[in-house]
Structure formats: C-alpha cells, structure tokens
Request: fold
Amino acid sequence: MLNNQGVDSMRFIAVFFVVLIHSGLFLYADRQEYAVYYALGVQLNQIARFAVPFFFVISGYFWGVKLQSNAKINTLAKQRVTRLFKILFAWNLVYILPYNFFDYLNYGVIETLKSAMGNVYYLVSHPLIILTQGSREHLWFLYSLSICFVVSAIALRFSNMSFLLAISVALFGFGLMGGAYQNTGIGIDIGINTRNGPFFGLIFFVLGMILSQLNNKTRLFKHSGFIFICGVALQSFEMHYLHKYHDADLLQDYVFSTLFIGLSAATFALRQNTLLTKKLISKLGRLSLGVYLVHPIILDYFREIERVFSSYIIWSLVTLTLTFLFSSVITKKLLNNKHVSKYLY
Reply:
C-alpha cells in the first residue's frame, strides 16, 4: 500500500466522525428544551456522513492502484475478501457474546444468557441479516466492502470500467429510491436497508478506482475543499427538503449529495494537503479499523452510565470523547498482540 500521510490522517478523523454518528451527539436531547443543541446535533450528523463514503473511496483507490500492477484480479479479490471475512467472523462472535456486565447486574445471569441466545436465534432465522450486517449493525461496512471487491473483480474480468461504473450508478439510484427518496414520487419500498449490500458503497468504491487513474493535480483534487463545503450545503438542503415535503427522517444514511462530500474528502486527503500531513495524526490512522470495530462496546457501557447523569448535554459530549479515546487506547494495546492485531488492521 502506498504511504500517504494525508490518507492516514483522514482515516483517523473519519473514524472519529463515525463514532460521533453512533453516539448520537445531542440527538437524544429534548427537542423543545434543547432545541439549539438538537439542531446542532442534526447538522453535525449530516456533516459526519462523509466518513464512511471516504473509506469506500480510499479502499477503491488503493484497489485500483493494486490492479495497475497487472496482478491477477481474481487472486487479489480472493485475498481481500478472505481477510475481511476472517475479521467479520471474529467480530460477529464478539458481538454475539453477552459482554455487557451491566446486563448481568440489571437482569441476572440467566436472563442475560437467554437474551444472547435469543439474538443468535434471530440471526439464524434472518439469513439476509447474517449476509449483509451480522451480529452488530456497524459490521455492514465490511460486508459491503467485500461485495465491492467481488463485484468489481467480476465486472472487470468480463467487461470494463465503464460497465462497472454503470452498474454502480444503477445500484446507487435504486438505493436512493428505496432509502431517502422512498416517500417521493419515484420511491419504492423493498423492505431492506439499502445502505447495506452493494447499493451504497459500490459507487464510492468505483469512484475511488477511477481516481487511481488520475493525476492528483487535476482540478478535482485542487478544488476538493470547496467541493466539500458545497457538498455539505447541498446535502443539508436535500435532507431538509425531503424532511419538509416528503416526511423523510432528517438523519439519512445518504442522499444524492453525499456523493460530493465522500469524493471530495478523499481527494482532499490524496492531494497531500499540508493540513493533514502531520506525522502524529497519520500514525493514528493505523487505529481506524480497530476503533470502528471496538467502539460500540464502549458506547454500550457509557449509555448505561448516562441514565444516572444529571446533565444530558454535558454527558453527550463526555460519551463521545471518552468512547473515542478509550476505543483508540484499547485498539493500540490490542495491536501489540500479534494474534489479535490481524483482526484489527
């Protein structure tokens, strides 16, 4: 893999915003008593939506770079998918286990174990969830990334990049119709979360592959900061429009404008911007996958404590900060173990 400090720094920044989304910063506040904080939470949540698209674009970029070495695409795809499924297998097991000690205190050992077995039964009886999301919701990203490698390898094996791009655009459009646009005139209800599978991630992955063929001094790279700002504004407008006129939730996984913020965040990092070429931050980029995998466990514990904390607003900030900090420290410690590190990096 290419050594790019900007990319590594952005990885660490992006995973912080993933934790922000999952922590629901200010979003559980009373909408009347804390209206300003709730509105701020919504806006931060929308800005943070660049993070996962960024990871898809960067994965596609380095995949595209690797393919330029003329290595066998089927072999490379098999290696990538095998590695991802080893990680998924391990972390699916982790999240099936009843790891939350507060559950034992609140409900007792027997009831906690029964609940864990109930979760296993639910997964077994819903194979689509096992294949696209696993035992914890955030694992969908690794499933989707695996699909991106497989689909791109098959498409390029029998056709070309234009065909792959066409497939990704069609799936993205279908995902929008079944997701954020579901209540509009072009919407459809397909009964699944179109964030999962190939609908959302593939187009960003393919755009990353296309970027790998461009010079990082082209206009797209040069104006990435401006494109990001415009993308955030467009995405905010789009989400509020859908909310006001089509009763869509303000907190969407993605809308059409998300394309601009995901792509521009990646080009901003790839152009070796001086704001991101900091050795300390770039070194922390190695922790990003581990933080992504670990942080829901930490969040579960802080949400138990949150119930007895007097000031929700302060505790919301504390939860985000400490969850990110503890997840980073735990990941760093685990990476020192050669038997565990292969499931975190």
